[in-house]
Amino acid sequence: MTKKPMNCCWRTDLQNFRGLSDFEKSGFLVCLEWFENFRLRHSLVAGREAAKAFWISEVKRDGIEREDWQLRQWSEAIRWYLAWLEACQLAGKDHRSTIERARAAVASFGARRGLARRTIQCYSGWVGRYARFAESAEAMIKVETATVFLQSIVSEEECAYSTQKQALNALAFFFKQVCGVEDPRFGVKLRKTEQRVPVVLSKREMGELLGDMKENEGRYSLIAELQYGAGLRLSEVVSLRIKDLDLDRGTLTVRQGKGDKDRVTVLPMSLKEALVEQVERVRKVWERDRSEDQPGVYLPGALARKFRQAAKEFGWFWLFPAPKVSRDPESGITRRHHVHGKVYSRAITRSAARCRTEKRVTSHALRHSFATQLLENGTDLRTIQELLGHEDITTTEIYLHVAVGVNGLGVVSPLDGHQSQLLTPY
Description:
The protein is mainly alpha-helical. It has helices spanning 10-16, 22-41, 48-59, 68-90, 98-112, 117-134, 137-140, 143-156, 161-178, 203-216, 218-230, 234-238, 272-291, 303-306, 341-355, 363-376, 381-388, 393-396, 414-423, and strands at residues 245-246, 251-254, 263-266, 321-327, 334-338.
């Protein structure tokens, strides 16, 4: 029978380490907590590569100047951590924290159950927060501890009802699948919150935003135009593949959207020429990857096993590929992925700031604007629901609250009536 490795904790070992003063320990603790949060957020394995990525992207971030004493202290803290990791490996101990072990368990059981990748990430994040709250593995497996945690989420954090429900579902999954509790009863009543109206840009504001992106964010302007013109979610527009375009019929196929559902939406014919040019640019990137014998792109589900050569076919290639190849954190394969959603979102934020709009503009505002302007132009709700991929039409009905004009709210302010009479000459 294989002996289970003992667990160790760098926080405890740092506290008991005799080679540092209390002042140095407090400085090391701040740096290493920062590093651990970064590592877990990006799903990096503890080691030198994770430390290097942390140093480049966080410590040496552009536009932030660090003091010399900070850099010395933080580099010493990282060196201490790496030496501690090596000692754990030599002793055959499991260096992962309770948070990391809990997240890994949820990810493993979630993959076995066939949960979507985003769902696994969401559940892992909530269970990680719960592990930090519980502070020990013994406390984590008690339903009473989870009840206190959920109660704090409901009463102390002003989060939406959907967020509260996410936390509840994540802990229910943890106790049922990981801990083996058949029917965990938390006894927490979720707090209902009012539905918020979406941020919608007018046609003028949308024109200014897209114009600025074309001038200053050229690489991402076509993505923004396509997201607005087809009403796509962020994850849907960045992960489009060449075969999803049907330029002759003017349609765009969204595959494995929210809820793992496929749908067909409208393809703006005004973008036809730009999309043809984009396909030809992407073809050159694909040909270069093939000449360099790069691994094929990621394929979902069992397709990679069923169609072994499909990943290298042009039809499966990304419509908006990343400029460089990178390591897939799940498979470990270094290959070309699609453009990162956060990078594209930052481009929209920069463009909105240059346009000096007072609204909080995100990539999802383009999707909201698509639906609202369709409604204002007379498109019926059922059609908009199909184009957006909403499961329930009540989700689509929220655009009735922000649409204006005859086909939207259909209401004219009484003040406008008075002003028109005042302006009418006798």
